[in-house]
Amino acid sequence: MRIAVLGAGAIGAYVGAALHRAGVEVHLIARGAHLAAMREHGVRVLSPRGDFTARPHATADPAEVGEVDYVFLGLKAYSYASSGDLLAPLMGPDTAVIAAQNGIPWWYFHGMTGHPLEGQRIEAVDPGGSVTAVLPMERAIGCVVYCSTEIEEPGVIRHLEGTRFSIGEPDRSISPRCVALSEAMIAGGLKCPVEKDVREDIWIKLMGNVAFNPLSALTRATMVEICDHSDSRDLVAQMMAETLAVARAAGCDPQISIDKRIDGARRVGHHKTSMLQDLEAGKRLETDAIIAAVVEIAELARVPAPTLRHVYAAIDLLSRTSLVS
């Protein structure tokens, strides 16, 4: 098994190190000081589950790697359409792509036989089909990440919590390629269930992201602060309720209560969401997959979602007026 990690940042380098530890041939594709450190010293993982160091091949040039069995995408979803030159050298006839992204993926309605929106393109995450042109639907393996990591310093990954990477085929099959990947991930010390319908995991995670990410960026508040403020907690609950209605119209019925989902987020404590961190770092905000796509699906399915629309209008304006890189 040959796996390339394209965008070997905090999550990608952690996954790559775990897979390498399991004996998989791993190639990390990164840049800058982080790449230089991984080349010289390997990937050092600091974790409450035990520290370890792995030394997979690391490069800035995918052409050095060649065709692989799997590409693990550690890029932000908004970078997919422009990643064609990086992906091309890695792609063989049967190369699968594990899209470890937040929010709604570009392949969402692919393989949903019998659903009224089967095959529908979601413009927010696949504008003009630009992502599909780079990443054909048949290559996609869905992946929902329940893992928190950060780059403590170049080449050093701090694993904070969670080891679960739920994966699944868009067509709901239990495929040999998913089973093989799951076995390799598990051998590396990770949890990697193959889900019959990974969309349920997508929506359960998205229930939190769709509310806490934009609200934290708009208010500069941590998750516990949002939960402990009665009016903002009510706003979160309303956004989650609308998101559940959209999920059901999109062919999925997540079995989780809103109060349980909010209480789980509160236990995370004074944590800054990824969107707030990106805002403070002057980076582009990941609004398209996290909230714009949900609003678009609501429109396609004719589901009222006024709170989501209003919050999206505010975060979209903030995204457009903020300094980005």
From TrEMBL:
All copies of domain Ketopantoate reductase N-terminal, residue ranges: 3-170
Alphabetized, the UniProt keywords read: NADP, Oxidoreductase
Report the sequence similarity comment from the record. Answer: Belongs to the ketopantoate reductase family.
- Enumerate the Pfam families for this protein: ApbA, ApbA_C
Q: What's in the GO CC field? A: cytoplasm
Tell me the domain of life: Bacteria
- Alphabetized SUPFAM superfamilies for the sequence: 6-phosphogluconate dehydrogenase C-terminal domain-like, NAD(P)-binding Rossmann-fold domains
Q: Which InterPro entries does the entry link to?
A: 6-PGluconate_DH-like_C_sf, 6PGD_dom2, KPA_reductase, KPR-Related, KPR_N, NAD(P)-bd_dom_sf
Q: Does the keyword Amino-acid biosynthesis apply?
A: no
Protein name per UniProt: Ketopantoate reductase
Looking at the record, the residues that make up the Ketopantoate reductase C-terminal domain are: 197-316
Instruction: Give one GO term, molecular function aspect.
Output: oxidoreductase activity
